[in-house]
């Protein structure tokens, strides 16, 4: 797991450093909120635009959810996600709409029942709160509102290699992105 974290940080650092050799493009920050499996998710994003078609991205993601199986078991996921995105489509005439696709690594922590292995009924939970790691693929749509703001529509699918909650975990949200010049 330490090797996966080191590789993710190294990948993001190399992208940012290599981008500084060329033209200076904008950076952007964004926030979004939306649906995750069994609850709500919130994401804060920093993008470093390498050129007009690609950007390195660093996300902080929080999920607040409750597994509604036999028992209702609350859980939270907190992750950091370095990634890389490519613009795959842009509205030809006015360039007001774009579609980006990308992916990257995921590392974080999942807290099951606030770290307590016993439910209010006395039942014992098999799963453990733990560090998690994996990868993600993402799709981002942008609707340009002006020079500095866009509406952000985001969908990510996560693969957590060692999660007790589930290997695949979706997120779909909407938010705003602000371009820093």
TrEMBL record:
InterPro entries: Conjug_transposon_Tra0 (IPR018899). Residues 1-19 form the signal peptide. This is Conjugative transposon protein TraO. Keywords: Signal. It comes from Flaviramulus basaltis.
